TrEMBL record:
<dbReference type="InterPro" id="IPR006368">
    <property type="entry name" value="GDP_Man_deHydtase"/>
</dbReference>
<dbReference type="InterPro" id="IPR016040">
    <property type="entry name" value="NAD(P)-bd_dom"/>
</dbReference>
<dbReference type="GO" id="GO:0042351">
    <property type="term" value="P:'de novo' GDP-L-fucose biosynthetic process"/>
</dbReference>
<feature type="domain" description="NAD(P)-binding">
    <location>
        <begin position="8"/>
        <end position="352"/>
    </location>
</feature>
<keyword id="KW-0456">Lyase</keyword>
<dbReference type="InterPro" id="IPR036291">
    <property type="entry name" value="NAD(P)-bd_dom_sf"/>
</dbReference>
<protein>
    <recommendedName>
        <fullName>GDP-mannose 4,6-dehydratase</fullName>
        <ecNumber>4.2.1.47</ecNumber>
    </recommendedName>
</protein>
<comment type="function">
    <text>Catalyzes the conversion of GDP-D-mannose to GDP-4-dehydro-6-deoxy-D-mannose.</text>
</comment>
<keyword id="KW-0521">NADP</keyword>
<dbReference type="GO" id="GO:0070401">
    <property type="term" value="F:NADP+ binding"/>
</dbReference>
<comment type="similarity">
    <text>Belongs to the NAD(P)-dependent epimerase/dehydratase family. GDP-mannose 4,6-dehydratase subfamily.</text>
</comment>
<dbReference type="GO" id="GO:0008446">
    <property type="term" value="F:GDP-mannose 4,6-dehydratase activity"/>
</dbReference>
<dbReference type="Pfam" id="PF16363">
    <property type="entry name" value="GDP_Man_Dehyd"/>
</dbReference>
Length: 361
């Protein structure tokens, strides 16, 4: 019998799942992942850690599954008997959640319930610890809900602004409820935005760094974006999966905010990315007041030029309700978990642009 700790990761083919699987393997875990059946291969982010199942001592195994399928979830958990479950699986795109709200409720909301209930049905409440991938989208960016220092923390009220946020709020509360009702070790990590070269191509940071690389290499003319005036607290996914693991190693199950405590305008991320390839973008109204800049960015005709126009605003990318500003207070995670991010935004942007430049030759 192996004495290794056993982890089950849903969403293993995603950005966070891939970094978390690497981390857990490094820490000597046996790692099981749930992947969805797709018509083409969807394991690009984890192919480098794949292990031939015919070898002895295989520590990485994938199971076909889906968070909408209770019987499948129960069977996988029964087979794997995990010490830790990381529930990262989700339809994670906020804008897309407005197009498929019922599906998002099923996967992101009820999917969490299915995991927790499977643990209970199988009598694993004492053995299996559960991490739930909660999100800063729960706060909704309402100015009046920030704490006295001007940040969102573990005590800030929630006000989700999308079907994604509404589904995730169910996931948050059902996790907390199972902890209180059944004494399960079930925790929420309330993670603010985190990015990496493995970030999905339609999230704003990756969309920007890919387009920066593509434009720099002369493969693309123009990048179309939506709201340039929102602000996000961006960290690196590698740092954030370390926090997930730490949350499940504590003596007591609690919820934690994971953030950098620094927030940045989308438009400033754009200028940082283009600066990496030596293109100094200036925004129209750069020397004007913040109010004038925001007004300029909300004009669909607004454009960024460097000799030629490289960024245009397309209202198609606006959301019916927007989260304007996110900034998290990581004091609790720093003091209780001893968590400290290694990357700042400049290092993150540099790594993403450098990685994307390799895609275009
Ligand atoms: P990704 O979108 O990169 O990955 C999502 C993962 O969930 C993929 O493996 C995807 O599989 C899987 N998935 C989607 N639908 C289902 C389903 N029906 N059943 C099973 N698995 C499914 O997200 P991230 O890695 O960025 O995020 C991980 C988690 O953390 C998500 O729950 C997200 O909502 C949450 N989160 C993310 C933050 C961020 O900034 N990245 C911040 C806060 C929370 P497939 O590859 O087949 O599509
Ligand atoms: P977010 O990330 O909604 O914060 O959710 P995203 O990168 O999609 O948007 C961030 C901000 O950028 C604005 N924006 C655009 N967004 C996209 N995707 N595409 C564009 O062209 C564009 N132009 C401007 C958006 O309006 C928004 O204000 C992410 C996801 O990972 C969630 O799963 C996670 O829970 C939260 O972060 C925390």
């Amino acid at each position: 019998m192996s004495t290794k700790k056993v982890a089950l990761v849903t969403g293993i083919t995603g950005q966070d799942g891939s970094y978390l699987a690497e981390l857990l393997l490094e820490k000597g875990y046996q790692v099981h992942g749930v992947k969805r059946r797709a018509s083409s291969f969807n394991t690009q982010r984890i192919d480098h850690i794949y292990q031939d199942q015919h070898e002895s001592n295989v520590d990485f195994k994938l199971h076909y599954g889906d968070l909408t399928d209770s019987t499948n979830i129960i069977r996988i958990i029964q087979e794997v008997q995990p010490d830790e479950i990381y529930n990262l699986g989700a339809m994670s795109h906020v804008k897309v959640s407005f197009d498929s709200p019922e599906y998002v409720a099923n996967v992101d909301g009820l999917g969490t319930l299915r995991i927790l209930e499977a643990v209970r049905i199988l009598g694993l409440e004492k053995k299996t610890r559960v991490y739930q991938a909660s999100t800063s989208e729960l706060y909704g960016g309402l100015a009046e809900n920030k704490n006295a220092k001007g940040f969102y923390d573990e005590n800030s009220p929630f006000y989700p602004r999308s079907p994604y946020g509404a589904a995730k709020i169910y996931g948050f509360w059902i996790t907390k409820n199972y902890r209180e009702a059944y004494n399960m070790f079930a925790c929420n990590g309330i993670l603010f935005n985190h990015e990496s070269p493995r970030r999905g191509e339609t999230f704003v940071t990756r969309k920007i760094t890919m387009a920066t690389a593509s434009i720099a290499k002369g493969k693309q003319d123009c990048l179309y974006l939506g709201n340039l005036n929102s602000q996000r607290d961006w960290g690196h996914a590698k740092d954030y999966v370390e926090a997930m693991w730490r949350i499940l190693q504590q003596d007591v199950a609690e919820d934690y905010v994971i953030a950098t405590g620094v927030t940045t305008y989308i438009r400033d991320f754009v200028t940082m990315a283009f600066a990496e390839v030596g293109m100094e973008l200036t925004f129209e109204g750069e020397n004007e007041s913040e109010v004038a800049k925001i007004a300029a960015c909300n004009n669909p005709l607004y454009q960024l030029e460097i000799g030629k126009v490289v960024v245009r605003v397309d209202p198609e990318y606006y959301r019916p309700t927007e989260v304007d500003l996110l900034i998290g207070d990581p004091t609790k995670s720093k003091t209780q978990l001893g968590w400290e991010p290694k990357y700042d935004l400049a290092a993150l942007v540099k790594e993403m642009v450098e990685s994307d430049l390799k895609l275009f030759n």
